[in-house]
Amino acid sequence: MRKCAINAVVVLFSVIFTAGFDCRAQNAQPTKYQIEAAFIYNFARFVDWPTQAFTDASSPMVIGVLGKNRFGSDLAQMISGKAIRGHPLQFKECASLADATHCQVLFVSDSEKNHLSKDISALGGDSVLTVSETDNFIAAGGMIDLRIVNDKMRFDINNSAAKTAGLTISSKLLSLAMSVK
Q1: What is the pTM of this model?
Q2: Arch. (CATH architecture) of 2-180
């Protein structure tokens, strides 16, 4: 029974993931960063924030990038016109950690790899879901680490870091992670 439930969640996540792409014949294969953008969008759908993480019930959910924006316009396009639980999604490039504290989801670029621990600890107890593809991200206190395994995008979750920030990650998302700390 559990295997059937996990398979159903994988199928659901795959459908949600692929629904975000505008499929055209000339661009049949999405880029790595288009795939990561879809994952980030879907991570936000499977996380609950405390009410104080938003100014009010209809304020935007900000998805930001700290460091070099390797997504180009892919992440902004992925979330354009979408909302999660009444919060319209908004993209922001964060030039500093001060900007990052106004995000609900923060992708920490690999250009920040020399500052990971400092960047993550500077966010303190802010309710910011941190995501990266940088080595040692989970060990530095990050929450979701994206990586490619056997040519497929996979991820690890540091659920204890998320709980410390007041975030609740859905059990469906936790069941899809390669590892949960």
Answers
A1: 0.84
A2: 3-Layer(aba) Sandwich (3.40)
